Amino acid sequence: MNLLFLGTSAGVPTKTRNVTGIALRESKGKGWYLVDCGEGTQHQVLHTKLSFHSLKAIFITHVHGDHCYGLPGILASAAMGGRKAPLTIVAPAGIKTWLEATCEVTQLCLPFALEFIASDDLPSVEFENIAVETFSLSHRVASYAYTFTERKIDAALDMEKLAQKGIPRGPLWGQLKQGVDIEFAGEPLRSQDYLIFKNTPRKVVIAGDNDQPDLLSEACAEAQVLVHEATYTEEMAEKAGDVGHSYAKLVAAFAESIKLPSLVLTHFSPRYQFSSHASPSIEDIRKEAEGAYSGSLFLARDFGEYTLEKTGYFSEVVGE
Ligand SMILES: [Zn+2]
Ligand SMILES: [Zn+2]
């Protein structure tokens, strides 16, 4: 699995950072998923190797413009690029109303079907290689986190259990190895019970804007990576008197409390600059988070790319 950040700024873009958009790529196949789609996301996509033909689904965390204003443009461009395959959009119900109104007023007739799934119902959605679950967060409007778990992982047959049950070598073994549940001697058998997994499935949690990271405890179970906003440092959050967002220490302390292996912070207030000589600097956010978290910490930048290996090892992809 691979994460590519298309925008890391909160609220408004800066000269070097666009508003929120994250591409999650499958480890098997060419499919990818877009989480949030701030204005200009399609321009960011043009600087990558991603294609709208292989986009499997779009997930919107909440209705604020810096997370969704790029949606009509991306759909229109996908249409002009010849996309015909249906596209799943998991988003708060208001997004469907807004998109339909936009399509009608601007006479945008998409040549592919949109399948809307309301995140308000906390859906579980299964794709060929990835299973997604939805969790509620705390923000000024309804906001959600999505968990992405790989579905097919390498496994070996448990020969001892097969022998115990007396399941003969043949097609049934093949089905169990493929993850297909079977029936044997009139008894339904779950493939999972006859497989030995070499690794735990890869799981990435991508959260929308949220001022209570603790809400993610269940979502983060067995996850190797959490992507969460850290709009400010604690001091700046107090000064800004902002309601609905997190600061570095708050997220970092949560990640530490659940022993999360890797944490990626993003959605930095536009006042933070990259240069460590600037003030305030994104380094201030890093330092504050480092003080509260002992796992692998990353501060996302636009076009920053990260890979999660089968073993659960998460790291930044350097250069190309
Ligand atoms: Zn935001
Ligand atoms: Zn927001």
TrEMBL record:
UniProt: Zn(2+) 2 binding residues: 66-67, 209, 267
Species name: Vreelandella alkaliphila
Gene3D superfamilies named among the record's database cross-references: Ribonuclease Z/Hydroxyacylglutathione hydrolase-like (3.60.15.10)
SUPFAM superfamilies to which the protein is assigned, alphabetical: Metallo-hydrolase/oxidoreductase
Keywords in alphabetical order: Endonuclease, Hydrolase, Metal-binding, Nuclease, tRNA processing, Zinc
Enzyme Commission number: 3.1.26.11
Family stated for the protein in its record: Belongs to the RNase Z family.
Lineage: Bacteria, Pseudomonadati, Pseudomonadota, Gammaproteobacteria, Oceanospirillales
Quaternary state and interactors: Homodimer.
Leader sequence residues: none
Name of protein: Ribonuclease Z
Enzyme class: hydrolase
